[in-house]
From TrEMBL:
Protein name (record): ABC transporter related protein
SUPFAM superfamilies reported for this sequence: P-loop containing nucleoside triphosphate hydrolases
Region named Disordered: 336-384
Keywords, alphabetical: ATP-binding, Nucleotide-binding, Translocase, Transport
Gene3D superfamilies assigned to the protein according to its UniProt record, in alphabetical order: P-loop containing nucleotide triphosphate hydrolases (3.40.50.300)
Pfam family for this entry, one: ABC_tran
Biased composition (Basic and acidic residues): 336-349, 365-384
Gene Ontology MF: a single term: ATP binding
The organism's place on the tree of life at top rank: Bacteria
UniProt-listed InterPro entries: AAA+_ATPase, ABC_transporter-like_ATP-bd, P-loop_NTPase
Domain ABC transporter: 10-250
Length: 384
């Protein structure tokens, strides 16, 4: 597995569907130029319907390009025979069902059949390769388990082992973290990055798990709804605004400082939090749920300070103290609800009864006022 320097390279690639039976050719993406290097985990991201799956099928030779070329280690993918492509390139699709009555060892062993000839029998060398693949994928302890009894995370490890057993130069994975819980998603993506580095593999994985991808990936292929392919490190695509350009919408925005996507409802107001991390980050995240937009400097509608005894909030010239973060966020939520009702030009009422106890003489519907953080009005009106 040495001496490889090129990985995948796309040159003026167009992908889509050729003309057939009276239907005209349909190009999904055109003019694609990109590279994925050995030793790197490259993630492919973009909105639904942008053409990610079509591009992956073209990369793996399952669908011919409409124009341009796909090179794998310097060779046009179309020039490879099926056997040559199977030895160089492993493909892991989003499969929930594995062949019945097979153990994890036997599933991983399927990756050796392009090396075994017409007999299909595994030699001692083949079995050693399967053992190495399972161990590399962290799945050797699953070898004797029935494949149908494996959890989603365990199953994905075995599928990665099957790909490794091929001893390819490149692995392409379609949604490898689909159906997995949070812990398993992190484990699988971390495994792919480690294998890319340790084995000098070219690894390309599509995913909708954007925040995890941006934390783990070495390189990103970003497809926008405009059909444009943007490439670079996660940091570069964050700084130049590419991620925001592709994913920002009326209800969602990319926060470049935190590297996460946040809801973007109509803002209640601005808030400045004076605290060290993790208090500052957690408070800003909690308040963002109720449409408070965090600012680092300048005037703010709400100012929060973490004190030894809890939290101090200053809002419209009044001070309120809270013993814990739950009491503070409950108060901020009520302020947001009241603000939304005021903007609509009607009192906050439920079932015709005025809500009492919340700001402006109202109470949140169906609940008593939150008195855990007895809100001490110090009536410190600014200017007094």
């Amino acid at each position: 597995m040495t001496g490889r320097t090129t990985g995948f390279a796309l040159h003026d690639l167009a992908v889509g569907y050729p003309a057939r039976r009276g239907r005209p050719e349909h190009r999904v993406l055109t003019g694609l130029n990109a590279a994925a290097a050995p030793g790197d985990l490259t993630v492919l991201i973009g909105p639904n319907g942008a053409g990610k799956s079509t591009l992956l099928r073209t990369l793996t030779g399952l669908q011919p390009p409409l124009a341009g070329t796909v090179l794998l280690d310097g060779t046009d993918i179309r020039a490879l025979t099926a056997a040559e492509r199977a030895r160089r390139l492993a493909v892991v699709l989003t499969e929930r069902d594995l062949p019945p009555l097979l153990t994890a060892w036997e599933v991983a062993g399927l990756g050796r059949y392009q090396h075994t000839g017409f007999t299909g029998r595994l030699t001692e060398a083949d079995e050693a390769a399967v053992a190495w693949a399972l161990e590399s994928a962290g799945a050797l302890h699953l070898a004797d388990r029935q494949a149908t009894e494996l959890s989603d995370g365990e199953r994905q490890r075995v599928m990665v082992a099957r790909a490794l057993a091929q001893e390819p130069t490149a692995i392409v994975l379609d949604e490898p973290t689909a159906f997995l819980d949070v812990g398993s998603r992190v484990t699988v993506m971390g495994l792919l990055r480690r294998l890319a580095r340790e084995r000098s593999l070219t690894v390309i994985a599509s995913t909708h798990d954007l925040e995890l991808a941006l934390r783990i990936a070495d390189h990103v292929w970003l497809i926008g709804s405009d059909g444009r392919l943007r490439t670079g490190t996660p940091e570069r695509l964050t700084i130049d605004g590419s991620l925001s350009a592709v994913f920002d919408g009326d209800d969602l925005a990319f926060d470049p400082a935190a590297g996460v996507f946040v809801p973007r409802p109509r803002a209640t107001g601005t808030v400045r939090v004076t605290a060290g991390d993790p208090h500052r980050y957690l408070l800003e995240r909690a308040l963002a749920r109720y449409s408070w937009r965090a600012v680092a400097s300048g005037p703010a509608d709400l100012e929060i300070t973490v004190t030894e005894g809890g939290y101090l909030a200053e809002h419209r010239g009044e001070r309120h103290r809270f013993p814990d973060i739950e009491a503070l966020t409950a108060w901020a939520r009520d302020r947001a609800r009241q603000g939304a009702a005021d903007r609509e030009g009607e009192p906050c009422r439920r079932g015709g009864h005025a809500r009492q106890g919340a700001p402006g003489g109202h109470r949140a519907p169906g609940r008593e006022p939150d008195r855990r953080g007895e809100q001490i009005h110090e009536t410190a009106r600014r200017g007094r």
